[in-house]
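Researcher: Sequence recovery benchmark, item below. Answer with residues only.
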């Protein structure tokens, strides 16, 4: 615990590993085994349960609870864990639950993420790097969220949903279908409303690649009358064309097996 700042009221188990420069505020409780990386700040009244690994330079704000028992009736106290990557910020009242034997045995949050106040991340989720999850968003179990995605406040993501890289989910959206990479989704009954052009530009993606991605979106989800009616046929045709790097990511995503159907620009659509 050399060079660490530990408040006298904090309760820390003997088998908790603290790297250099860790700060732990008043009345926080850390149960072992657990590992906390260099220069990470655990503010006051935080609870961290066992089998949690937190990276370097993280900041966890008051009343967050990390590593709680999953709200899954099938959970039988199996030894699962939580991993949080370097530089991630977890704000007030956030809850993150461990994995289960029915999933990947781990809840994973990548590096440089921002999890805003009162958000919930359930068991067996995978949250990619640079993801933003806004206030009061609810992420169900087994959800996969790609790198750079943005989840709006009060959004609710159903279990087993996949959300692709750099997608954006509008505030208050109810998402029960898979969202393509770079997709722009919003509404009470979420529908796909184009490509996240603003987000792509903010990340300095080449204009030529953005244009190809938009072209693919229109071909797959807004076909002309002379184009194939079946979604599966349009995918086969698209695979023969050059829709750029991001287009290839989308095409790979829509071909992968999933427990959920694909979100389109029509809430009544079924994927053929």
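Model:
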């Amino acid at each position: 615990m050399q060079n660490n700042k530990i408040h006298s009221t904090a309760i820390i188990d003997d088998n908790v590993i603290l790297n250099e420069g860790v700060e732990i505020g008043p009345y926080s409780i850390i149960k072992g085994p657990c590992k906390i990386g260099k220069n990470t700040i655990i503010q006051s009244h935080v609870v961290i349960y066992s089998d949690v690994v937190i990276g370097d330079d993280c900041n966890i704000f008051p009343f967050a609870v990390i590593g709680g028992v999953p709200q899954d009736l099938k959970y039988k106290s199996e030894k699962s864990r939580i991993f949080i990557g370097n530089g991630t910020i977890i704000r007030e009242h956030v809850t993150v639950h461990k994995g289960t034997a029915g999933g990947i045995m781990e809840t994973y949050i990548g590096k440089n993420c921002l999890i805003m106040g009162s958000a919930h991340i359930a068991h067996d989720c995978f949250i990619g790097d640079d993801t933003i999850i806004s206030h009061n968003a609810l992420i169900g179990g087994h959800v996969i969220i790609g790198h750079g995605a943005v989840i709006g406040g009060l959004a609710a993501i159903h279990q087993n949903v996949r959300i692709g890289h750099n997608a954006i989910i509008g505030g208050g959206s109810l998402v029960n279908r898979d969202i393509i990479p770079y997709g722009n989704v919003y509404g009470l009954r979420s529908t796909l409303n184009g490509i996240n052009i603003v987000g792509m530009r903010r990340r300095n993606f080449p204009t030529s690649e953005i244009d190809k991605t938009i072209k693919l979106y229109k071909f797959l989800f807004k076909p002309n009358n002379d184009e194939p009616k079946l979604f599966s046929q349009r995918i086969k045709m698209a695979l023969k064309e050059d829709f750029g790097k991001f287009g290839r990511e989308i095409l790979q995503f829509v071909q992968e097996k999933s427990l959920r159907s694909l979100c389109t620009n029509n809430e009544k659509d079924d994927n053929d």
